[in-house]
Request: fold
Amino acid sequence: MELEQAREVLQNARRLAILTGAGISAESGIATFREAQTGLWARYKPEDLATPAAYQRDPLLVWQWYAERYQMVQKAQPNSAHLALVELERRQLSAGGSFVLVTQNVDGLHSRAGSGQHGGQYIELHGNLSTGRDEITGAIENLPPTDKIGQNLPPHSTAGNRLRPNVVWFGEQLSGAALTKAREAFVWADLALVIGTSGLVYPAAGLASQTLQNGNYLIEINPQETELSERVSLSLRQTASAGLAMLLG
Ligand code: NAD
Reply:
C-alpha cells in the first residue's frame, strides 16, 4: 500500500488499534532498558533488578534503581508523536469511531500527553514507573514526588503496606484483563498501527498478527526493519514523529 492510500484508510477507519514500544519515547530522550545500565548500575543486568527473585533478595536495591528510572521519566516530556496520537484519538472519537492505544512502555508519557482523555481506551500492558502497587491489597498508588522518593525507600501505601514497583517483571504474567482488551482491539481493528517496537516481546508482539489474520490493514512506523516489516501493509521507515506527521498530514 502507498502512503496516499494509507492516509485514506486511516481517515476511513472505524476501529483503530495502536501498539507503541520504546521507540516512540526515544525522541523524548528515554533510555532503553539496556542503555539505562550506566554509571553505578553498569555492573547489574536488568534481569538482576527486574525480577521477583531480585526484589525478594534485595527490595532496597531494586527500589533504588526504580526510583532513578522514575525520576528520569518524570524529567522527560511527551514528544510530538505522543501528541499526534492524542490528536488522532480526538479525531477518531469525534467521527464516531473507536480508538484503543496499547503501550509496552512504562514511562507514562502517553498519559501525560493526554491519551485516554477524548473517550478512547489507553492500556499500559507493562505498568507504569510513576506508580507503586500495595503488596497486600494490590491497590495502585502514585509514588511520592520525585524529590522525596529517595528519602524513604521502599515507599509505603496509604494503608501502610510496602509498595512494589508497578511494572511487569521478567517471568511475570501480564494482567489478563488488559491483555484481553488489547487482543479484542486488534482482532476487531480495521486498521492497526505499530510504532517503535522491535516486535520481539511477546505476547504484545502477537497483537499485530491478529489484525493481519483477519485481512485488515497494518502500518508500521520504525526507522529500522523489524520482524513484522515483511508482513505489514505499509512500513514507514521513519521516526515515530515523522511517520505520524506523514500519516496524519
Ligand atoms: P525495543 O527496545 O525492543 O525496540 C525499540 C524499537 O524502536 C526498535 O525497533 C527501534 O528500531 C525503534 N526506534 C528507535 N528509535 C525510534 C524512533 N525515534 N521512532 C520510532 N521507532 C524507533 O523496545 P520494545 O519493543 O518496546 O520492547 C522493549 C521492552 O522494554 C518493552 O517491554 C518495554 O516495556 C520496555 N521498555 C520501556 C521503555 C519505556 O517505557 N520508554 C524503555 C525501554 C524499554
Observations:
- Strands lie at 15-20, 98-103, 121-124, 127-134, 140-142, 163-167, 191-195, 217-221, 234-236.
